[in-house]
Amino acid sequence: MSRIADLNDLIPKYYKLINMIRQKIEDGEWTPHEAIPSERQLETLYNLSRTTIRQAVGILIRQGYLYREHGRGTFVSPQKLQKGITELTSFTEDMRNRGLEPGQIILEIGGIKPSRKVLQQLELPPDTESIFHIERIRLANSQPMGLQVSYLALAKDQVITREELEENGSLYNILREKYNIVPTEAEETLEVTLATYREAALLQVKEGSPLLLSQRTLWSQNRRAIEYVKILYRGDRYKYYVKLTR
């Protein structure tokens, strides 16, 4: 017993407070957008110094559990959306499956000169002069969730207009219904990156905030590479999960 007590004493006080606050959020005791107790109240509740409290709250803000509004206080962040790493779904499907209204702001749409990496991902010849691309801010309940850039290996007579995309919302639905191109298989990589000035402005986060970068190559039902897409998700609103079996 004394050995356990000694080890417990080695755990920093701010880390203990982080775990207690996180547990209240995960148990639903503190709900999304609810103000947490002030620093003075936390000081009284847990008998901790103001420095320790600020350290713990600062870490929880960086982890996406809390957010601060100047002059108003600190609040519980909305629950992160999670996506199965084995699920081949569109952003629109992801949001609707979670009871959220998907949306988009189309920044660019049309032909673009592809980079060497894009040509390799889409298995296109190196002399390809132009491919179709779409850049969009993806929304959930009108809030920015991600920044998406899609590169499409379409035939010259296969055109997707801004009006079609604004009306339908889902690129995969348009491909399937208009051209009988059915997404069936994909390879995806995930990594953490930091928001540039432009990315931060579009996603309404601070420059340098952590983002989750997903890069996916999609194949159609006839095993033809049809899309290479990069999505930058807000790190405070999105997480992936994977189920492992043995």
Write up this protein:
- The chain is 33% helix and 33% strand.
- By secondary structure, it is α+β, with helices and mostly antiparallel strands.
- It folds into 2 domains: 2-76, Arc Repressor Mutant, subunit A, CATH 1.10.10.10; 81-241, Chorismate lyase (3-Layer(aba) Sandwich).
- The strands form 3 sheets. A 6-stranded antiparallel β-sheet has the order 4-5-6-9-8-7. The protein has a two-stranded antiparallel ribbon with strand order 1-2.
- A hairpin with a 3-residue loop joins strand 1 (66-69) and strand 2.
- The longest helix is centred in the N-terminal third of the chain and has 14 residues, at 13-26.
- The two termini are 36 Å apart.
- Residues 1-5 have low confidence and may be disordered.
Features:
alpha+beta; two-stranded antiparallel ribbon; 2 domains; Chorismate lyase; six-stranded antiparallel β-sheet; 246 residues; Arc Repressor Mutant, subunit A; 33% helix
What class do helices, strands and sheet pairing give? alpha+beta
CATH topology of the largest domain: Chorismate lyase
How many domains make up the coordinates? 2
Which CATH architecture of the largest domain? 3-Layer(aba) Sandwich
SSE arrangement, N to C: HHHHEEEHEHEEHHEHEEE
Q: Going across the major beta sheet, what is the strand order?
A: 4-5-6-9-8-7
Shape: elongated
Give the integer mean of the pLDDT values.
85
Low-confidence segments: 1-5
